[in-house]
Each structure stands twice: as structure tokens, then as C-alpha cells.
Amino acid sequence: MKMTLSVLKADVGSIGGHIKPSQALFQEIARFVKDNGKNLIIDAYISSTGDDMAMLLTHQRGVNDEKIHKLGWEAFLAGTAVAKKQGLYGAGQDLLKDSFSGNIKGLGPAVAEMEIEERPNEPFVFFAADKTDPGAYNLPFYLAFADPMYCSGLILSPKMGKGFTFRIIDVAYIEKDRIIDLNTPEDLYDIAALLRDNERYVIEAIFSRSTGGQAASVSTTRLHNIAGKYTGKDDPVALIRVQGEFPATGEVLAPFEIGHLVAGFMRGSHTGPLMPCRLNTTISYFDGPPVVTGAAFCVHEGKLTEPADVFDHPFWDHVRGQVSEKAQAIRRQGFSGAAMLPYSELEYGGVVDKLGALDKRFKLRG
Questions:
Q1: Is 137 a residue of the active site?
Q2: Beta-carbon contacts of residue 347 (< 8 Å; ≥ 6 apart)
């Protein structure tokens, strides 16, 4: 059975700054999807991560479907209306265009989709991150799909031993989608050379070379590319199919114990460790730290099971403690050096105006 998984995510309002959506906002989006998704979708899971709302939808309409995207856009508008009534912070923040034009991409919300041939048992993980950008997934997904130190299936499974195709997008190029397909293991070093630059080159999709099946879909929206100025961090979502010809769930989760340093944190302008958190985690310390949640599902004929919280285990409590220490350590460095993002990532921030004004006051000596 051909079936489509679609995730649409946006920040449309939050309590007390960038902490969490209100219950009324959450309920309105869930109600809108339920009432207006009839004859469009098979099932839906509505969730929040930090101050972002996300909807996971199953249907048979394929990717980039106008009616599915319009449902998401109008649900976010309905949530925005509630946010404005409640006076929530950043109401409609990620809705950067005035009207829907057939596709939600380029309007602000993040999108991750894949059309699959549903297996007899179809497990997958829906990841949602807040206070960071799409490049935050580069390292963990590289390790999960290309490094046998993290993914033993690469040497134990005949199908996985044939490797994977990484589709990488240049998010700095805004005229059109500029992509490249590279294969593991032969292009491993080339993939690493690109993915080291999280702000420019981002994994968009991963495919099994054994079966051709899509294993991963990552949202690659860059909000400042759309708005022309800083309006909030991109807060990416991802869908990862697991087991069989794909890495096991545990192999996909393992790299997240690193708590690797990513862009984001306060005002989207700093560096901080990515903390794997329980579902519905809020935002706190220095508008962070950057967080990622994971909801695992099985889907059969488009119907979702209840979610299993992949980071709700005593092991991850220990990891969160270590990540907290990393967050404190880099925050002690304040604005200096690597603690704050480079000039190119502050292009639409007030610091650029300040530096421009100061530049005129410099003098040549001698």
C-alpha cells in the first residue's frame, strides 16, 4: 500500500516568551485538523516541542499535495487567531507570507514528507527540534547511516552493507533547490566534507541503495532566506524509517548521546549542545538549550499506533545531565568566539548595523 507521511511544523504563539504553546492553541489546531481533514487524511498526531506546534499526517495523496498543505496552513492560521486572542508571544511568527499559494514550502512552516510503499510492519521515528536549524541533524544521521561504529547493521546486514544515498541541499542557494546525491561508502569523505558546514549543507533525504526505499526526510526551511531578516530559528523536523533495510531504532538514537554543538540557543545566534528530551518538552535556560524529541510509531494502512517516547528512559536522564554541563560551559564564554554564531549567520541581526556604524569610525594610522 502506497502511503504518505507528512509533517508540518510552525511556531504560531507561545506562553511567557519562547516556552510552550498554550493549551487552547494546541486544542484549536487539533480540532481544526480533525474537523477539516475528513476525506483528506487517514490519521493525525498533533504535538508540540518547545514553542513549536507540529502535525504528523498520514494520507495517500503523495508529497507536496496542495490540499494537505492547505489543511496545515489553515490549521496554523486558526492557531494564530487563538494566540492573538490570548496575547501569546510571537503569534503567527513562522507564517511569513500573507496567503497560501498551493504549497506550504516557502511560506515559513517546516515540512518533512515521504511517500512510501508500506511494509507489513512499518516502524518510524518522528523527530522535532527547537531552537536550532536543519543542520543539527547532519551529524547524528551521518553516524546512524554511514558509520559502523554507531550502526553495526552496516557490517551485519547484507542489505544495509550496500550503503545509502545521501541527498544534500545547499541551503545558502535560494534561487532554486541546489542538491547533490552522494553514495556511501565510496563518497564517504565527500559527504563528511559537506556536512561539516551545518549552516550551508544539510541532509534533505536518505535512500537505501539495496531497495531504493526512502529512509529519511528532513525539513530544510531557512526562515531568514524567506523573510530577509531574523524571525526565529528554523526548528527542523525529520522522519526516519527504521528496522529491516534501514538502521535499527537504537542505531538511529545512539548518536544523540553526544549532545553535539549546534546553532541556535538564545535569539538563534549562539552555539549550544543539542539535548535529547522527552515529548512535549518546553524551553527554558537561555531560551534553550537546543532540544530534540522523538516519537516512534508503527503505521498500518495509514493508521498510527500511539507514540513511544524514544528519549523517556533513565539512560537519557544521564545524557541530559552531561548536556546541561556542556551548555553551562559554553554559556560562560558569553558573546565571545565560538559561543556566538559567525558574522554570516548574524547577517540579519542588530550586530550587523552596529558593526556597519563602527566601520565608518575607523581611521588609518600613519
A1: no
A2: 224
43-49 sheet: strands from edge to edge: 43-49, 52-59, 2-10, 110-117
Please pick, among 20, 105, 131, 233, the residue that the annotation labels catalytic: 233
Q: Cell triple for residue 49?
A: 516541542
Q: Tell me how far apart the terminal alpha carbons of the chain are, to the nearest angstrom.
A: 77
Boundaries of every domain in the chain: 1-117, 118-353
The DSSP call for residue 4 is: E
Per-residue pLDDT tens over the stretch 202-217: 999 999 999 999 999 9
230 is catalytic: yes
Alpha-carbon distance of 10 to 31, in angstroms, equals 17
Enter the CATH code of domain 1-117.
3.30.70
Query: Residue 35 contacts by C-beta under 8 Å, 6 or more apart in sequence?
Result: none
For residue 176, indicate whether it is catalytic: no
pLDDT per residue over 309-350, tens digit each? 999 999 999 999 999 999 999 999 999 999 999 877 765 567
